[in-house]
Design brief:
This protein has 152 residues and is mainly alpha-helical. Helix content is 42%, strand content 8%. It has seven helices and two strands, in the order H-E-H-E-H-H-H-H-H. The chain has a two-stranded parallel ribbon with strand order 1-2. Strand 1, helix 2 and strand 2 form a beta-alpha-beta unit. The chain is globular and about 40 Å long. The chain starts with a helix and ends in a 32-residue tail after the last helix.
């Protein structure tokens, strides 16, 4: 989730604008999580978001057990489905803390100030404030960002 959000912030920092389209490249077994959970947590339009899945089996990654990683992804998806911002579940939050032993803060609130409240959001309800990439015509009457072909 943070990789996606911080990538958007970095794009804004470098280009001065937010992306119109996003393509994520990652392991194929993470596709559902990015499309259904992380993308929707930031309300990025479905039709402007794509995921290119790579198969580690094909690349012969040494020391990486894709079968085990795929099995673990099942529980990870359940955790993210319950905690879409990864800030309440001890396993999701704990992984984030372990990656940051010196408790450094990210500078993206300066680079993308419009997203500071999203970066701090912890749910459990969906973040509902306006976001720079959402057009009014992409949102239905309930405030849900639509997928391609959905009825408003």
């Amino acid at each position: 989730y943070e990789n996606l959000l911080f990538s958007i912030c970095r794009f804004r920092e470098v280009t001065g604008r937010y992306p119109l389209r996003i393509t994520v490249v990652g392991f194929d077994f993470k596709k559902q999580r990015f499309l259904d959970l992380h993308r929707s947590a930031i309300s990025f339009p479905f039709n402007n978001f794509s995921y290119v899945g790579l198969n580690a089996h094909a690349g012969g990654a040494v020391g990486f057990n894709q079968d085990r990683a795929e099995q673990g992804e099942t529980s990870v998806i359940k955790a993210w489905a319950q905690d879409r911002y990864g800030c309440k579940d001890v396993n999701l939050y704990g992984k984030r803390e372990m990656r940051n032993p010196f408790r450094r803060t990210v500078p993206y609130a300066l680079a993308a100030p419009e997203l500071q409240s999203l970066m701090e959001w912890c749910g459990p309800q969906a973040y509902a404030a306006p976001l720079p990439w959402i057009k009014v015509e992409d949102v239905n009457k309930k405030g849900v960002v639509l997928k391609v072909g959905e009825i408003k």
